[in-house]
Specification:
- The protein has 177 residues and is an all-alpha fold.
- It has a single domain, classed as TerB-like (Orthogonal Bundle), CATH 1.10.3680.
- The protein is 70% helix and 0% strand.
- The protein contains 9 helices and no strands.
- The radius of gyration is 17 Å and the shape is globular.
- The C terminus is likely disordered.
Length: 177
């Protein structure tokens, strides 16, 4: 495990040689997965719904097999726990993705934040920070948030209008009720 983490951080820190495009692709996958895990961990209530949202996002974005998804998730979780900041990961995405691809990643991040049916202020704060670090224009950022909210049925139902009235909003601490 320690050897794997050393390889991981060495891999992220070293610039990618132009002759090895697979390494750059691996860096992007790992950086994306780490940011997804960071959003999951933001509110200290990481549940199965958020984990499934991460795996679904990675599966969609990278077309990976189940064992590759699990391995990437495990590496991302370890890197997330040990990373001193987010800049190393966001800079990888800024170098490797177009604006449209980064906006899609932000939508995946929002889906993880909404996966448990509740957006905590910690998740919202982290998302604002990530949007800034990824240089996402505010309009695109808000549009990605709206698409993710609409894709999360629990959240969309909670904010829907019924008979001209907004339903009472639950607080994040009331998830189980």
């Amino acid at each position: 495990m320690l050897h794997t983490l050393k390889e991981l951080f060495g891999f992220l820190a070293e610039p990618a040689p132009a002759s090895q495009p697979g390494d750059a692709e691996h860096r992007l996958k790992l950086a994306t997965a780490v940011l997804l895990v960071e959003v999951m961990r933001a509110d200290d209530e990481a549940g199965d719904a958020e984990r499934e949202a991460i795996l679904a996002s990675l599966r969609t974005q990278f077309d990976l097999h189940a064992d590759e998804l699990e391995r990437l998730y495990e590496l991302a979780h370890a890197a997330s726990r040990d990373a001193p900041d987010l800049y190393g990961f966001t800079s990888q995405l800024n170098k490797g993705y177009s604006m449209a691809e980064k906006v899609l990643i932000v939508e995946y991040l929002w889906r993880v934040a909404y996966a448990d049916g509740c957006l905590s202020h910690y998740e919202n704060h982290l998302m604002l920070k990530l949007g800034d670090l990824l240089y996402i224009p505010r309009g695109d950022f808000v549009a990605a948030k709206q698409r993710a909210r609409e894709a999360a049925p629990q959240v969309a139902e909670r904010f829907s209008v019924v008979d001209g009235q907004l339903p009472a909003r639950r607080h994040c601490s009331e998830k189980g009720s």
